[in-house]
Automatic annotation (TrEMBL):
Keywords from the named record: Membrane, Transmembrane, Transmembrane helix
Stretches assigned to coiled coil: none
Protein's name according to its UniProt entry: PepSY domain-containing protein
Entry-linked Pfam families: PepSY_TM (PF03929)
Transmembrane segments: 12-38, 157-177, 207-227, 356-377
Length: 395
């Protein structure tokens, strides 16, 4: 380093030039992330005419009755039961022709079926999710993850830009820190009756500070999907384990799998809801040859502010015995954090409350490269004017 080149100057240079280098990528990634924050709500809005139950009077049909009614034409693979009582069940199923075609094309089982909204009170099929909206939201996600350039090219670009974004955020904090306490107010508030240059500066400086923590959380979790080494390293740091694992499949005693069925799916579902005693969305996957058990996932939706964690339990499909339980509360802190990486990155870790904060923060992040470039351009103009003034005085 040259003499007089301070740490703050280094941070200023890193903040500027790394920001300039990644500005276009970060604007695209942050904008698509802003939209994708409310992906579920956007889909729900366009599906509202087919996803709601009109008449909630009377008793719901049991899952066994629904399966029996629907199985006359289609094979049912899974049933999603929303926490909202007025929302229809979402059932994944396929016709025998679709199953045969998928088997011939060697598709995975989960890719065979199609999702349908089904009225849980009368088993009427209300409709299917809007495919156009689904494709549009998937397009936003693909641009967010690899800029639409494909995995091999776009994913590392986004990954490294996200890592650089972490450096930009931290150097920005260093630059924001005031030399004196009495100057703190200037970094926390917008200056009144200011010109457009000062307004632009405050938009970058003040809003950048208030959104910093959430932006760092986004940045730290983002490369999880870009690099295997990053995912492995993060897992090692949090859990101490070398490999990231989503859990092992439960083992079912072959003899018990051949027993005469003595329990209904509804009884298994009721037992699971009693075991996982909180309000939440439930996903029930029916047994297959490869997975001869009933798998039930429940995601906490207790309130607008509650932690959105997921528990998973597995039951013997023949006798209803609990085979395995993977409960969030039983995991060490490191594994809890690893299981929440996606929720932390996408903003739904604290349900609607965190989604709102993430939406605002991601919207701010979209503007930061723009306001930053404007600040830089204004400084260049000011520097050029100073040189002209010095040259004029020298004459």
């Amino acid at each position: 380093m040259k003499k007089g080149y301070s740490f703050k100057q280094l941070c200023a240079d890193l903040h500027l030039w790394l920001g300039v280098a990644t500005s276009i990528v970060l604007v695209i990634v942050c904008f698509t992330g802003t939209v994708y924050t409310y992906e579920a709500e956007i889909k729900a809005y366009y599906d509202r005419h087919v996803s709601s139950v009109e008449n909630t009077e009377g008793d719901k049909q049991s899952v066994d009755e629904l399966i029996q009614t629907l199985s006359s034409e289609k094979k049912v693979f899974s049933i999603n039961i929303p926490a909202d009582e007025e929302k229809a069940y979402v059932i994944n199923m396929a016709t025998p022709e679709q199953i045969k075609e998928a088997q011939n094309s060697k598709k995975k089982r989960r890719g065979i079926g199609k999702y349908y909204y089904v009225d849980q009170y009368n088993a009427d099929v209300l409709g299917t999710p809007n495919e156009k909206v689904k494709k549009v939201m998937m397009g936003f996600m693909m641009v967010h993850r690899h800029l639409g350039l494909g995995w091999d090219i776009g994913r590392p670009i986004v990954g490294w830009s996200t890592i650089i974004f972490i450096i930009i955020s931290l150097t920005g904090l260093v630059l924001w820190l005031p030399k004196k306490v009495k100057q703190l107010k200037a970094g926390l508030t917008f200056k009144k009756n200011a010109g457009w240059k000062r307004i632009n500066y405050d938009l970058h400086n003040v809003l950048g500070f208030y959104s910093l923590i959430i932006l760092l959380l986004m940045g730290i979790t983002g490369p999880f999907w870009s690099f295997d080494w990053y995912r492995t390293g993060l897992n090692k740091a949090l859990t101490g384990e070398e490999k990231f694992s989503r859990g092992e499949r439960p083992k079912v005693d072959p003899a018990s799998a051949k027993q005469t069925k003595s329990v209904t799916y509804q009884e298994i579902l009721d037992n699971a809801n009693a075991y996982l005693d909180y309000k939440g969305d439930v996903s029930m996957t029916l047994p297959s040859k490869k997975s001869p058990y009933v798998a039930i996932r429940k995601t906490n939706k207790a309130s607008f502010f509650s932690l959105q964690y997921t528990d998973q339990v597995y039951y013997n499909a023949q006798n209803g015995e609990l085979i395995k339980a993977e409960l969030f509360k039983d995991k060490p802190l490191g594994k809890q954090l690893m299981s929440l990486v996606k929720a932390i990155h996408l903003g739904y870790v604290f349900n609607g409350f965190s989604k709102l904060l993430y939406f605002i923060s991601c919207l701010i992040a979209t503007t930061l490269p723009v306001t930053g470039l404007i600040i830089w351009i204004n400084k260049l103009k000011k520097k050029k004017q100073r040189k002209k003034k010095k040259a004029a005085l020298a004459v």
